[in-house]
Amino acid sequence: MADLAVLFDSLEDAGGSQTLIRLNGFIKRLSPARADDVRDLSAEDAGALCRLFHTHIREAAHVADESRLEQQQPPSDELLTEVRQSLVTHVGVIDGVLRVGRSLCAGRPESQRCLREAGLAEMLVDSLDTLVAVLAFWQHVQAGRSDDSLMPKVQRSLITFFINLVTANDINQSHLWKLVYPWRSVKLALIAGSPSHMFMLLHNISCQSAERRAALAAEEGTQVLYLMYSAAVHHAAAEEGQGQGGSDEWVSIFSHAWWRQPGAFESLFRCVMRLDDDELQLIVLRQLDPPPLSPQPHTPNSSGGTSSSMDRFRSHPVRARWIMERLKHLIASQRDMAAYLLAMLEAFVEEEWRERNDDGGGGTTLLQTMVADGSLMAFLFSLIARALTDVCRPAHRRPFLPFPPDTDTSPPAAPAAEEDACSLSGCLRPLARTAILLTSSHAWLASADDGDHHHHRHSVADGLIRSIVSFLDCHHSLRLRAMVSRKDRRKREREREGGGAEGDDRDVVERVWDEVSEEVSCRDLIRVVANLLHDDHRMQDTCREIDGLRVLLNHTLSDEKDPLMKESSIFAIRNACHTNAVNKSAVRQLLSGSFQGVIEAPDELMAALERPAAAAEDGGGALLEDMVRARIDGRGVSE
């Protein structure tokens, strides 16, 4: 193959269309099967690539100068065609340069070093405002045309070039981090075609640096991640609507590794609860406002900078509309974001739970982090209490669900500044399932014998069990009222049989019951209580003191809206009575006469009290062994 520097120099001397043709021909020879035949880039090769990029980004900015269109109102078809063809040529060359750089630096430390020293990364970062303006202008001149494959190509090439530039190269990782963190990464997110690529870049930059991971957990970092995760939420929703899924694996890989840090998930979730959508948009828009152009010493052009026509893009409405449109598709609602993050947390915890492997010294699992650090466990339990409160928060529900009934049984609440920012009423199910897995894990059970963790574990568990028992008591009262209401309604239906169309004849109690039943799974809440009671005499006594035994007995009935609730309640009562004679006596006394609740099969329950308590509850009841943490190294992106 010809010397690369000679080839790139010849591309500089060619016209725009000829450059694009020759560059595409060279890219075809960079297939993975033939990539080994191409030598590493030299300093001269990297310099030639930089000059080629600079020439065509400047020309693209000149073509995208909207003043040419403003001279003709409306612009002629000939002018629009000319503008489109010019943009296709120059942006196509830019895309080609990025693809060549991406292919020749993948797994090649020498090529990565030459491109860094030549300043291509700086040129790309400094040109982000220009690229945003060109993308906005391209969308404007396309005017609804269906053929819009050019911009997604250059968007993907840009982000994947950065990925390959930093993969397995700590010097390049540190260099790019200084260039883009924190708010230039937001511009990258606006330009990147897929959130998975953006998370792949974040993972490759931060996976081997504790300092950079800690920076992402700081306030500015969590605001940036809020935006990145919001893009993933919208992307996942769009894929679900199209019957697709599974393309955002790097969102999960980054999250799984990063959330193992103490405080990482908590800081991000608090950011979600604290910032509303409008406030986040204002923060992003302020950071996207580009600074004045300054000379770029790394640029081959001695005049420095890009075209002076770019000054007009700073406040031009086309660019502003494009950014606002992108923000609409990047910032999800707080409730969607909260549900998305909690669903991911549940999935990660369940994955580790089901692996059942010892850690073996390979690192710390998320479950171990949650138990050992304590703050995330306490935060998770406070979120459950907060979600239970939010279920009862709407005004029309307060007469039927007066929870919590008094301050003595109220759990520790989230900080007041965050209380009204985001409702968690729709997040109770993943929270409860995560708590089930956490409290049945090997790490949790082992902490019972650890003097350092036992006191903290008991204090957070005490608040949680009080909150759940109080809610279950109120919930059961609502169930009884709904049962009476349903019975009366059926009686009225029989009396007016044959009376024609009836419509929705439910009264307000039934409607509230149906709404709450959609959000709450008593079975899951009771399973959390059962795990908290397992082999913990203090928690067993607490359950009796707060009248929890009566509440659990009230739930030993079948409910078509909540299958297995009866079995979960029997399980919890058995754990409450295990090696606790006082609790056994209290349950027998309730069953023999003083019990005023509803219960099915009391004989079955009495027989269950004589059986030994299970260790923990999750399907078959086996315990979790900690998962072996597989170290995930960043991968590059091939051509």
From TrEMBL:
Residue spans of biased composition, Polar residues class: 299-310
UniProt-listed Pfam families: Atx10homo_assoc
InterPro entries with a match to the protein in the record: ARM-type_fold, Ataxin-10/CTR86_families, Ataxin-10_domain
One cellular component (GO) term of this entry: cytosol
Swiss-Prot/TrEMBL keywords: Cell cycle, Cell division
Protein's GO biological process: cell division
Name this protein carries in UniProt: Ataxin-10 domain-containing protein
